[in-house]
Inverse folding.
């Protein structure tokens, strides 16, 4: 697997601007991303994504080397990337708390 | 190759070969469901499966699906159960099955004296037919190039696209190398992959057809106002339909796409095929497929002898007619639900296996299940089945280039 950071993070394609978590992380976990140390703010399950770098609002989110949606606001490096800060470029995502993003 | 690529199958009169010798009890309207279920119950562990169509109004797609399923190579005999006043063309279906050389009987509940007499007569027919099939179905050598294998994902999470789906993709590559037919299904779950998929088509005309079908898909789901995306997908770390698509797409492996088929079209030769499950003619009857089971039934109608099912969140379903091999993407899910899973692809995440290892393991499982070994869902008695209303136009000539 490319860019496996000590078995915790996976960058699937080198163009991706997100990492996939290979393990669940509890809030407060400190991670080294390149030169920077980031703190995980909320507990995150296996398979969730964090930003590999700063992403600005409107920018494409890239995973598998392909766009999987657009940022709806600025996202800090290391921040959870999910339904609260990105949206589909095709069909809105439905969630149980009725937030369509 | 370490796996044995030949096994024993069941020869049908049309020359096709099955890996199971199943008897189907088919209710032709919901009103005949209970009677059919009661007929099957004592025989449910003896290779008798219950399928049916709930609607009272006629639908050509449902009739064609039933015709395909009742003459599927895994199907040895068929008992049709009708209430009597529904619109389903029971005579046409019975004739179709009879012409295929399979034993077939029709019980019309209104003519047989109601619930109890129909159950009794159905069970008597089953007793005789189970014995007859066991005695008379020719056993033949079957090899991997005669297999049709489907792939689907259900209960996906963010691990599906990293472990189980690409491992199924490796298995698909091995199947195609061995000249088997491999079918991956296209629903809303390939939205966003249209360009890369079209580039893999064996002809430009087929590429054009694939792009057309993906446009239809995006239009259809936009009308529905809901992508192929369940709440659990987001809990599992997936955020958008196109992210889910990229993961789902990995199931197709890396072979060229040899054809675009629709439910009921049987691949004419070995190779990789894309199954278009989205109805033609606009949104009429609701969601293209209301759940994973409806999609599995369509793969089976295309001749799938077995289906590879990738799951991250942990689906437990199996299927009537054709066995389902459950490939679990998420190591945490596997540990929680090991009794339901055939393959632990989550080992890839934990560094205990490579994609190629798991791809090879799935390939070996395919051969072992084809040779008669029961899958977990088969052993547990899972025989889910769903068939709904849909409309399809026949595929055009560009969809199956020679």
């Amino acid at each position: 697997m490319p860019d496996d950071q000590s078995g915790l993070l996976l960058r699937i394609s080198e163009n991706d601007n997100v990492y996939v978590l290979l393990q669940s992380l509890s809030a407060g976990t400190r991670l080294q991303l390149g030169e920077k140390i980031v703190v995980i703010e909320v507990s995150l399950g296996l398979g969730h994504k964090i930003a590999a770098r700063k992403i600005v609002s409107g920018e494409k989110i890239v995973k598998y080397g392909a766009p999987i949606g657009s940022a709806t606001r600025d996202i800090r490096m290391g921040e959870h990337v999910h339904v609260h800060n990105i949206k589909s470029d095709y069909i809105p995502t439905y969630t149980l708390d009725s937030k369509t993003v | 190759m370490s796996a044995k690529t030949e096994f024993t199958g069941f020869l049908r009169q049309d020359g096709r070969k099955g890996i199971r010798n199943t008897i189907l009890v088919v209710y032709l309207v919901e009103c005949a469901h209970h009677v059919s279920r009661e007929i099957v119950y004592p025989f449910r562990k003896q290779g008798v499966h219950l399928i049916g169509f709930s609607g009272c109004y006629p639908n050509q797609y449902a009739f064609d699906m039933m015709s395909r399923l009742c003459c599927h190579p895994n199907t040895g005999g068929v008992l049709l159960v009708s209430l009597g006043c529904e619109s389903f063309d029971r005579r046409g279906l019975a004739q179709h099955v009879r012409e295929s050389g399979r034993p077939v009987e029709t019980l019309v509940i209104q003519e047989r004296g109601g619930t109890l007499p129909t159950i009794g007569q159905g069970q008597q027919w089953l007793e005789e037919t189970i014995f007859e099939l066991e005695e008379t179905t020719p056993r033949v050598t079957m090899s991997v190039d005669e297999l049709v294998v489907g792939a689907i994902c259900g209960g996906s999470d963010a691990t599906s696209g990293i472990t189980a789906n690409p491992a199924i993709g490796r298995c698909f590559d091995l199947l195609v190398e061995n000249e088997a037919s491999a079918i991956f299904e296209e629903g809303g779950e390939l939205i966003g992959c249209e360009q890369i998929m079209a580039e893999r088509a064996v002809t430009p005309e087929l590429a054009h057809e694939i792009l057309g079908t993906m446009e239809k898909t995006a239009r259809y789901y936009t009308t529905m106002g809901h992508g192929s995306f369940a709440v659990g997908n987001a809990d599992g770390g997936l955020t958008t339909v196109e992210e889910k698509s990229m993961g789902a797409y990995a199931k197709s492996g890396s072979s060229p796409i040899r054809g675009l088929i629709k439910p009921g079209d049987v691949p004419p030769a070995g190779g990789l095929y894309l199954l278009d499950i989205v109805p033609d003619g606009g949104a009429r009857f609701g969601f293209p497929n209301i759940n994973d089971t409806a999609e599995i039934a369509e793969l089976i109608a295309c001749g799938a002898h077995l289906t590879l099912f990738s799951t991250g969140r942990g689906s437990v379903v199996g299927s009537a007619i054709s066995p389902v091999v459950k490939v679990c993407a998420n190591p945490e899910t596997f540990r929680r639900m090991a009794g339901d899973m055939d393959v632990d692809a989550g080992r890839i995440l934990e560094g205990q296996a490579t994609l190629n290892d798991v791809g090879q393991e799935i390939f070996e499982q395919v051969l072992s299940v084809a040779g008669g070994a029961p899958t977990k869902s088969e052993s547990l008695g899972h025989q889910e089945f769903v068939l709904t209303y849909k409309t399809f136009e026949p595929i055009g000539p560009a969809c199956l280039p020679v």
Notes: Chain B has a mean pLDDT of 94.
